[in-house]
Amino acid sequence: MLDRRSLIVGGSLAALAGPTVLRAQTGRFALPEPLIPVDARRDRMYRVTVCLRPFRAAGPRIEAERISGKTVVHHYGHGGSGWSLSWGSAQQAVPLAIATGARDIAVIGAGAIGLTSAITAQRMGAKVTIYTKERFPQIRSGYATGSWTPSSRIGMEDQVAPGFGDWWEKVARASYAMHQSYLGVAGSPVEWTPRWFLSDEPPGPHKPSTPDGRPRFLELDHVTGDLVPDMQNVAPEDNPFAIPYARRNTQMTFNVAQYCRQLEAEFEASGGRFVHAELESVKDLRHIRETTILNCTGYAARALFGDESIVPVRGQIAWLLPQPGVNYGVFYNHLYVLARRDGIVVQALGENDYFGFDDPDETPDMAAAVAAIDQAGMMFRPKSI
Ligand SMILES: Cc1cc2nc3c(=O)[nH]c(=O)nc-3n(C[C@H](O)[C@H](O)[C@H](O)COP(=O)(O)OP(=O)(O)OC[C@H]3O[C@@H](n4cnc5c(N)ncnc54)[C@H](O)[C@@H]3O)c2cc1C
Questions:
Q1: Pocket residues for ligand 1 (CB within 6 Å)?
Q2: Domains in the chain, number
Q3: 62-101 pLDDT, tens per residue?
Q4: pLDDT tens digits for 223-274?
Q5: Which domain of life is it from (predicted)?
Q6: Looking at the domain assignment, is residue 6 inside a domain?
Q7: 4 lies in a domain?
Q8: How far is the CA of 263 from the centre of ligand 1 (A)?
Q9: Torsions phi, psi for 45 (to 5 deg)
Q10: Structural domain for 122, as ranges
């Protein structure tokens, strides 16, 4: 017998119900609408992307250096937090460039860090040119999940400078405030959407994201926990999934395609100019007209500026076609599915933060992508029929 609150698939009842839905009882934990399941099938996968998180055990590098008569302000190494921390980090880096007294400033790179740095510099009165090899959609930032993850792989315990936690909190809070200013903008570059956390066992204490015996990644999310709505336990009768335990909250989502386009348009509307340029070595800085340069090259700074403290942390996403009305994320069994307006992210997270660590291979692993889609399909299987 079919439980009306459960997943309705196929057949005449589905036709009566309109689109396939996961029904959750409203009441104590009111859901505005029935939950439409993600249609996680291999034939809906339209691309697989790989990106490298620019991780530094000491945290992002923000410092000025004189190179060949120019001031280069390094601004890179944001690990798995580049989108989240972008604005606040720019507010730390850009004043170092403004302090040179230059009115014309160059930014190298048009990823999350380059775009937000460029706009921040414009707001501080500078005339800005972005020199870049790639723009969206080729940039690594274009392949991010699009979640508020301000302390994801942002540094290692004992390897960041004293006071890093205070610095991080200031950056995270400033960034958060700027992201909120993009709510309600056409195309929804930023929006708040539900997250479900599913488990086979009752939720236990927080598990550290580092396995025993290895250097520990910093975990700072609790410091800014007040910015994120509280997690709620979902009663079994309100749980629309076939997985026994569910918790839920609401989190900030970056619709990365819209966000990049919005930032590029904003930059150009304020008189900013993009120049296509591929620097092969530091010597090529001489081809840049400006004498003050913000270096926002992300992982590429490793080769370009010889910074071997940058460690690549590989992450792969299998993309499913977007589905109207599906706008939530689900975590289950080390898999994350996040339905954004510009596509549905299916991402294997691995058992801990060392997943993909020191792996510079940007070739898509198709077998892993298909396995992730199949696993996602299990999350959305019918509850009872
Ligand atoms: C799978 C995955 C998921 C992620 N999810 C999230 C998330 O949900 N939330 C979050 O906050 N962060 C997330 N991140 C992290 C985030 O994507 C990075 O921290 C961020 O993209 C770094 O941005 P960036 O601007 O420093 O670098 P990039 O995006 O790599 O930009 C570098 C720029 O420099 C240019 N450039 C490079 N070399 C040269 C050169 N030689 N000459 C000229 N130009 C050059 C490039 O063309 C590009 O424009 C994720 C990362 C991965 C891998």
A1: 51-54, 76, 78-84, 108-114, 132-134, 139-141, 144-147, 149, 277-279, 296-300, 304, 315, 317
A2: 1
A3: 999 999 999 999 999 999 999 999 999 999 999 999 999 9
A4: 999 999 999 999 999 999 999 999 999 999 999 999 999 999 999 999 999 9
A5: Bacteria
A6: no
A7: no
A8: 15
A9: -80, 125
A10: 11-379
